[in-house]
# Entry
Amino acid sequence: MRAANPKGYTHPDLLWPPAELQARLGDPNLRIIDTRPGERFAMGHIPGARHFDVYGINCDDTDEAPLQSFLRMWAFLLGNRGVSFENTIVFYDDMTGNTCVRGFWFLELFGHGDVHVLDGGYRAWERAGLPTTRDAEVPQAVHFAYSLNRDCLATYKDVLAAIGDKDHMLLDTRTEGEWRGTSKRAKRGGALPGAVWQEWLKHLTLEGEMKPAAELRAQFEAIGVTPEKEVTAY
# Structure
């Protein structure tokens, strides 16, 4: 049975509430991926989950050769955790945070059509009183084949082309300090020319779940992000 859609999402299947995941725990094709720090995984996780550090490897060069090498490493690490392209895949964090959605985005980039995020993450699972475990098995490695969906990815060349394009929005989702340039986590501080700002935490409720669709739509429209425009988030 498909879960209800009380938040009014256009694609509610992308976000699974805890009850949806619990109902599917016995599915042998399901792969649950815990993206929290390894210490927290060791202290307790959803039964059957595999740990995966989505920031374990990074690439700051989107020219073709280093980008392809980076993506091959990502696919290898997924396969090393027993995850194949044919699996139903669910990522979770402590909440609907930036590590689980990074995993989700990578799978969409890889052309995967059956990938999901646990809404509210591990905290929502615990709030619902659902079972947890400290047990874990070493998964059998498999090959993770993929076919890139390049429309999901903007390289630096794409971003340069988007600057000044009235039909293309650059959306800065970092902290206010990074947006204003007072906090530097890159070579230079500040934002991309013409970008609008909305920190990713503003998309969540106080419980760490995704806000209802109507509320998110109003937030985006208030900063000029509307459906007819192409959007590149960073």
